[in-house]
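Hi R.,

As promised on Friday, here is the backbone we talked about, encoded as structure tokens. Could you run it through your design pipeline when you get a chance and send me back a sequence?
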């Protein structure tokens, strides 16, 4: 798993500028998911929903730096019960530790750019030592989470980088993009090293490998938002001789579906545990082309550096539209981007000179309407809010009804859940 990597910033997902040779090669060997989604566009809720198969409010970990409820079980519980040796190397962002009993192989919660950030020799040793027994290894890079201090940014210095539609073209934006891309390429090399270690032990053909990009990057419109660039994830899964090499699926899946899928693969039967996720094994083996009609997401401002007292997002998307419900839309949204991110600051300065697009993008990051509706076929970067269009009122109503049903199932009381979110946070104990 990468850290804060927007889904479209991979070569195999259409970005012709960023260099991701190992991930691109891996995609040619497995199945690439066009529509994989997180439950929340920030690190801790994303990871804990992945490991538990349960969305953030129902597992207890909906703000950042939060904790699941005491009764919640996670991936190492389920796999250890089935005789697997289950370990994690790298960034940890799950609490409390007893609910995530990985064998911890070491790592950092953040990377300051000094020394070895991810000891991949430890991964190689684990893979070799457990060669004759079932095992599962989660490798979590710190990259390309800010600060962008790894990789060779000069590799991108001479490129005329193509910016996604939601970014304002300033020098600061381009410098940030160069440093961000350099760290993606650095992370790609880490992933390549993991695959090489697996190959060297002769276990490639009997190992399922999953690559995930986590949530969106630190740029505005990505992380901490419920747009596709915040919630959508790169997801590639390889199992030689079983998953069709070089295949692509448009089936909509969520991180909460991955644990039930793995259990289905291991046991041969669909799990009956109380997950929010459900197995997409039939998609992997080519028997089905669809999985979910709707995917859901949540974001709460609690636990964000510089965040407001409350600013909650709830969202649902189908194949055609995304609806975002901004529960505290009368408040001003804020975070580390609005306080100290150089690219965003440059948008404000440019906007003050009369540049309308810069002014608009700066403003819309902090101030939202109650509802946002986007036509994802014609507006994939969600730039034009259609919620007030008369001919789409029924679409807004139908999707809002889906959000309300999901919130009821989750025990999510909306604004009240936002204001109570701090109760779920714990003192950070990460290394």
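Update: got your reply. Pasting your designed sequence below so it's all in one thread:
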């Amino acid at each position: 798993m990468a850290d804060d990597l927007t889904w479209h910033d991979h070569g195999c997902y259409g970005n012709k500028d960023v260099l991701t040779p190992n991930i691109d090669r891996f995609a040619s060997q497995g199945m690439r998911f066009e529509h994989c989604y997180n439950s929340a566009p920030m690190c801790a809720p994303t990871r804990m929903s992945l490991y538990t198969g349960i969305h953030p409010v129902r597992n207890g970990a909906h703000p950042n730096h939060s904790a699941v409820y005491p009764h919640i079980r996670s991936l190492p519980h389920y796999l250890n019960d089935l005789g697997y040796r289950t370990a994690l190397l790298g960034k940890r962002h799950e609490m409390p530790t007893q609910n995530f009993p990985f064998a911890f192989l070491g790592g950092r919660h953040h990377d300051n750019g000094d020394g070895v950030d991810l000891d991949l020799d430890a991964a190689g040793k684990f893979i070799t030592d457990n060669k004759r027994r079932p095992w599962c290894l989660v490798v979590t890079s710190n990259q390309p989470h800010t600060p962008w201090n790894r990789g060779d940014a000069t590799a991108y210095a001479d490129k005329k980088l193509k910016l996604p539609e939601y970014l304002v073209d300033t020098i600061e934006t381009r410098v940030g993009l160069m440093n961000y891309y350099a760290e993606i390429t650095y992370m790609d090399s880490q992933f390549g090293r993991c695959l090489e270690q697996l190959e060297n032990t002769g276990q490639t053909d009997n190992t399922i490998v999953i690559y995930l990009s986590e949530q969106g990057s630190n740029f505005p419109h990505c992380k901490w938002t419920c747009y596709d660039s915040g919630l959508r994830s790169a997801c590639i899964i390889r199992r030689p001789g079983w998953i069709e090499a070089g295949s692509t699926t448009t089936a909509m899946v969520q991180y909460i579906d991955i644990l039930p899928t793995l259990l289905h693969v291991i046991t041969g039967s669909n799990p009956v545990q109380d997950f929010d996720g459900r197995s997409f094994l039939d998609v992997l083996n080519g028997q089905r082309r669809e999985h979910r009609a709707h995917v859901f997401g949540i974001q709460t401002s609690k636990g964000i550096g510089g965040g407001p007292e409350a600013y909650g997002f709830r969202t649902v998307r189908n194949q055609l539209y995304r609806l975002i419900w901004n529960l505290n839309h009368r408040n001003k949204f804020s975070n580390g981007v609005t306080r100290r991110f150089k690219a965003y600051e440059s948008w404000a300065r440019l906007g003050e000179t009369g540049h309308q697009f810069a002014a608009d993008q700066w403003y819309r990051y902090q101030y939202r309407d109650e509802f946002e509706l986007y036509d994802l076929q014609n507006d994939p970067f969600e730039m034009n809010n259609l919620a007030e269009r008369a001919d789409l009122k029924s679409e807004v109503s139908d999707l809002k009804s889906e959000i309300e049903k999901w919130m009821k199932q989750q025990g999510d009381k909306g604004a009240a859940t936002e204001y109570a979110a701090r109760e779920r946070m714990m003192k950070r104990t990460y290394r």
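One thing I noticed while checking it: The mean pLDDT is 96.

Thanks again,
M.
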